[in-house]
């Protein structure tokens, strides 16, 4: 290979790497990450409370319920299955909320899929067909395996395999992926959430109590969420 060809090859490779790094940086930034000095993505986007300008009388969204349906306080979670922050909330924060609030009958969680891209839409459509008793276990599995199906060119096949573990056979999963009515319902709920609660990204949380409502945008820590829930319950957080 001639010297000029070697130079062109190296230049093309360097340019390709540069484009990849720029694209990756934009993508990570959109997801709330920046590159740390050691090259590891660092989370910088924290939960932000709303300015309170939400319609207090607007109809509450429909979704799958975890916990006592009559619990005095509700967390409405708007989540995209491909969202890193959403996965972090479900795998790291929600188990503590479930143990300390939901399992005690004080709080219920209402999960509303808010897909941000095509693969998350596929996951949301198949999840809608999973039996209610297996629904949240399936949601957890999707978040645990997020990287596997999210990076695959055959995400629909992989998600269908997960659904089979929850009792949904391949034929039904395939039918769910082509169910226009379910797709319209999911997108309609997403559109209503954008209009009624000013949601533009995930995760987002609508906290509802007795004559109280407020929005939380971003990924909350357990401590932040527990503080809000205790305030709505009218009780001091135990130290």
Blueprint of the fold:
Elements: H1 3-30, E1 33-35, E2 41-43, E3 48-49, E4 64-66, E5 73-79, H2 84-102, E6 107-113, H3 118-127, H4 132-144, H5 146-150, H6 155-165, H7 170-177, H8 180-197, E7 204-209, E8 212-217, H9 222-233
Short description:
The chain is of the alpha+beta class and 239 residues long. It folds into two domains: 3-43, no CATH class; 48-233, Glutaredoxin (3-Layer(aba) Sandwich). 52% of the residues lie in helices and 15% in strands.
Provide mean pLDDT, rounded: 81
Structural class call reads alpha+beta
| The CATH architecture of the largest domain | 3-Layer(aba) Sandwich
Integer tally of domains = 2
What is the percent of helical residues? 40-55%
CATH class of the largest domain: Alpha Beta
How far from one another are the termini?
A: 70 Å
Which strand order does the major sheet show? Answer: 3-8-7-5-6-4
Outline the structure in words.
The protein has 239 residues and is an alpha+beta fold. It folds into 2 domains: 41 residues, no CATH class; 186 residues, Glutaredoxin. It contains 9 helices and 8 strands. It has a 6-stranded mixed β-sheet. The protein has a two-stranded antiparallel sheet with strand order 1-2. Strand 7 and strand 8 form a beta hairpin. The chain is globular and about 50 Å long. About 18% of the residues have low confidence.
